[in-house]
Amino acid sequence: xTGTHDPLRPHAHEPNPEPPSVDAAFVFTNPAGAETIVTVAxxxxxxQIRLPNCYxxxxxxxxxxxxxxxxxxxxxxxxxxxxPGESWSQVExxxxxxxxxxxxxxxxxxxxxxxRPILLAITRNGRPLTRRQGLVRLIVPSETDDALRQxxxxxxxxxxx
Length: 161
Fold this sequence. Notes:
Blueprint: E1 26-29, E2 35-38, H1 40-44, E3 49-58, E4 62-73, H2 74-81, E5 90-95, E6 100-104, H3 105-108, E7 119-124, E8 127-128, E9 137-139, E10 154-160
């Protein structure tokens, strides 16, 4: 709808240097509204990838990197939590401090598949991320200049039809 405010895209975000909680587990909500808790250990059990030459673009803090982030693709997590053939159109990734990003299914299902997919990072340069560094962190490799898609401290992932 034209003129309707979308709180997840695009929007400003005040920098927050402190984690909103010590727990990195987050809530995963499927298209039917059922919720489950996802832990870092759950993510580590899924197929892992490494993405070199990624940058952290932080509002108010500039750009840092390059880093090699490791973790599971957002698509892999979604597919692992839904029934085969279950339809969905988008994923909302929301920080524990309320900042969020909406990713369309079409973006995750690029053809041909992206060599730099959207990632739920649990490591940086081969070491586990600390909670202060953003564990669990959404990395959007295509974003290089505005910090509006990368989500630090993922607190909820909501899959919608």
